[in-house]
Inverse folding.
């Protein structure tokens, strides 16, 4: 049984295959956190210590014991009002505007299966075989009529524990929620590093690792979207933890709106890690009977370093967050029109691209931005989702039929959350954009954000999109989002503090309607590249365009950082032209291919008709290689062997049963008369022999994993190589 409740000691123990999580309701009724670590039996309440620390350490009135203070005790759901002065998960105001509550244990329940959160993305179970269970613990403050239901979803074989919380106004007067975090992990001792993922447009998710000293370290997004500046993924680890050893804990937010992630070291050298909704412009009124859901946080623990932690998250997201037809299927190799021709295309130029793509083995043509309304540049027409037949030289169906006749599937780009001031939609409904009356709206790429907290706005966009998707054989949709929310005013909201939260829920509602109506369509998320790459979006879009930056060297860093929390199967990765259009670097096509082949959403993003014949041969070979390795890349265990700051950046995918491995390498240090560089694979079957398929050379797995094997010396700058190994 994954969940064990000891009714006498009021202890809750949650077991996954390799981890244990434990908490206990103490005598005054507070829910204390005891343990999250290696799977263990027994009670861990000895980890919590009590001492008279000083009169300054506050204590609940009814406890009246100077050795008892919530300012010291490790907790499951710390809140504002009981004397814990560290960052709370919940801050609530009553109808008179007074802060503070006192939440104590009220009841609990164990349910079979993993909880779902209606209207929100969440890890799902696939029936009894998953062995998932849910623990619900309700805390209550009778004075306010406030209830908080804490949900723990235990996914045993994924080694993942999910948390969410439902805040209910079960009283008779209004309440306002001013801060709502989903989960925290309290550590009674230890010295830690925190790992976060920062970036910007075209340089997303670089790895930052900091020592957690006194004070608090915080990242988050105030942008209304999860953002490329900080990713909603945080890892805490022992200072000595490496890829292969040491303890590490992660939190990944299943939410695509603003967020907070914080780690705080307190006066007693205790550490609290937490994650939840952004406080910024958030203030959510709850009338009697209403509730507010704190979106899910996926937690995992590894006693064996960061690669193993990432593998837990990969498996969870790949098999229990991503849904639908495309979850377990090879994704089509696509050619995207954006970097090939930007806005400058006709139906005929697209067909010319498709012809060349078909010759090289590519399987799908994606018509990116520029096909609708008067969209010939990025100053207008967002919101006018009707086909520009004049530009295409015919109907969409005719174009798609021509492309299909060449043996290629057809995909299309949309940016449904946005509206241009110069659009028919904006002229008809100016109040549908988020804009503050009397204040000039802030522009981003000359566009405004539609008010997706309003149902009539979402309905209009839904109908427009369906009209497009229904008129031709559309098999892929790229869902873009190219600016953040600045002006926060919804013309119909009763309270503006609700709008950011309701916007994201509205986005999910629209996405859900579309994925249900078009189960055969492969949706790819995008936000100016990878500026909204989170587990929430992956519930609707099985893959996300990882970055607008397709330079092979920068992409190494971007995909490396992304790999900490997200599987390769979710990463859109394309080969583009050189010099690169973002940083003007020239890299050989071997490097661009090697890097793009490490993403499950493999494809091309360049004018194939401009490519020299030799490069076309490379493309053919890459497409063929992709077909051979794509199952291992999509489903295998992923190992970061070295990073983007090393001489060689190397990574590896190993099939779950160890029968195959794929190794990617890019040489980064370029010197005269080179030194031999070695790569050391991991995760192969000990005692077995493997054949490298290009050379036919046979290697003993143990020696390979000990000494590694040498890369070619004096190769081209930025040489990229993909090696395939098969167990004999
Ligand atoms: C964003 C995307 C690009 C492309 C353009 C089109 O920048 O990230 O891939 O689709 O929009 O305008």
């Amino acid at each position: 049984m994954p969940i064990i409740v000891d009714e006498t000691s009021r202890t809750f123990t949650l077991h996954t295959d390799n981890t244990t999580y434990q908490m206990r309701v103490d005598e005054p009724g507070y829910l204390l956190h005891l343990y999250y670590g290696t799977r263990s039996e027994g009670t861990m309440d000895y980890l919590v210590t009590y001492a008279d620390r000083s009169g300054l350490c506050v204590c609940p009135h009814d406890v009246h014991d100077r050795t008892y203070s919530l300012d010291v005790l490790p907790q499951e759901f710390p809140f504002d009002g009981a004397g814990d002065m560290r960052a709370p998960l919940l801050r609530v105001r009553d109808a008179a505007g007074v802060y503070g509550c006192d939440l104590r244990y009220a009841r609990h329940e164990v349910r079979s299966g993993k909880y779902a959160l209606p209207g929100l993305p969440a890890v799902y179970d696939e029936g009894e075989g998953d062995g998932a269970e849910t623990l619900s613990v309700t805390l209550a403050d009778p004075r306010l009529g406030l209830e908080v239901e804490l949900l723990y979803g235990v996914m045993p074989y994924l080694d993942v524990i999910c948390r969410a919380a439902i805040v209910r106004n079960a009283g008779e007067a209004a309440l306002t929620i001013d801060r709502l975090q989903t989960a925290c992990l309290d550590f009674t001792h230890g010295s830690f590093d925190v790992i976060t993922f920062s970036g910007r447009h075209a340089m997303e998710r670089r790895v930052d690792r900091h020592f957690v000293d006194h004070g608090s370290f915080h990242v988050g997004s105030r942008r209304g979207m999860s953002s490329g500046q900080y990713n909603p993924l945080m890892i805490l680890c022992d200072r000595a933890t490496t890829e292969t050893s040491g303890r590490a804990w992660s939190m990944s937010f299943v939410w695509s709106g603003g967020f907070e992630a914080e780690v705080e070291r307190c006066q007693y050298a205790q550490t609290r890690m937490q994650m939840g909704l952004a406080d910024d412009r958030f203030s959510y009124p709850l009338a009697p009977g209403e509730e507010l859901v704190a979106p899910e946080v996926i937690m995992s623990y590894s006693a064996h370093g960061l690669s193993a932690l990432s593998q837990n998250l990969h498996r969870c997201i790949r098999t229990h967050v991503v849904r639908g037809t495309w979850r377990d299927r090879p994704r089509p190799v696509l050619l995207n029109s954006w970097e090939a021709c930007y806005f400058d295309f006709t139906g005929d130029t697209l067909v010319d691209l498709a012809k060349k793509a078909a010759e090289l083995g590519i399987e799908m043509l994606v018509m990116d931005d520029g096909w609708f309304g008067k969209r010939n540049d990025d100053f207008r027409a967002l919101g006018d989702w009707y086909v520009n037949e004049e530009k295409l030289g015919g109907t969409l169906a005719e174009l798609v039929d021509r492309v299909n006749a060449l043996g290629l599937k057809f995909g299309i780009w949309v940016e449904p959350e946005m509206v241009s001031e110069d659009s028919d939609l904006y002229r008809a409904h100016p109040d549908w954009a988020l804009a503050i009356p009397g204040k000039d709206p802030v522009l981003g790429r000359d566009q405004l954000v539609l008010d997706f907290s309003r149902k009539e706005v979402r309905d209009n966009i839904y109908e427009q999109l369906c009209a497009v998707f229904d008129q031709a054989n559309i098999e892929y949709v790229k869902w873009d989002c190219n600016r953040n929310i600045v002006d926060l005013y919804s013309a119909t909201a009763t309270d503006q503090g609700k709008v950011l939260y309701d916007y994201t829920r509205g986005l999910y509602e629209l996405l859900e309607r579309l994925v249900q109506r078009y189960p055969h369509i492969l949706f790819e998320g995008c936000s100016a590249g990878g500026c909204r790459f989170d587990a929430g979006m992956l519930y609707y879009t099985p893959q996300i365009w990882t970055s607008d930056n397709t330079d092979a060297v920068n992409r190494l860093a971007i995909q490396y950082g992304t790999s900490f929390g997200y599987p390769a199967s979710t990463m859109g990765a394309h080969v583009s032209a050189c010099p690169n259009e973002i940083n003007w670097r020239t890299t050989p096509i071997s490097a661009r291919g090697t890097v793009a082949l490490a993403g499950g959403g493999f494809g091309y993003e360049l004018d194939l008709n401009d490519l020299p014949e030799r490069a076309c041969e490379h493309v053919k070979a890459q497409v063929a290689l992709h077909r051979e390795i794509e199952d291992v890349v999509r489903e295998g265990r992923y190992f970061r062997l070295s990073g983007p700051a090393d001489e060689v950046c190397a990574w590896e995918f190993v099939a779950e049963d160890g029968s195959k491995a794929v190794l990617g390498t890019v040489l980064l240090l370029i010197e005269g008369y080179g030194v031999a560089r070695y790569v050391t694979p991991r995760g192969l079957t000990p005692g077995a022999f493997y054949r490298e398929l290009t050379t036919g050379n046979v290697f003993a797995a143990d020696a390979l994993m000990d000494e590694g094997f040498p890369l070619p010396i004096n190769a081209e700058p930025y040489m990229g190589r993909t090696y395939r190994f098969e167990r004999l």
Notes: The chain has 13 helices and 37 strands. The domain at 580-599+610-728 is CATH 2.60.40.1180 (Immunoglobulin-like). Residues 338, 368-369, 378, 413, 480, 482, 526, 528-529, 545, 548 surround alpha-D-galactopyranose (CB under 6 Å).
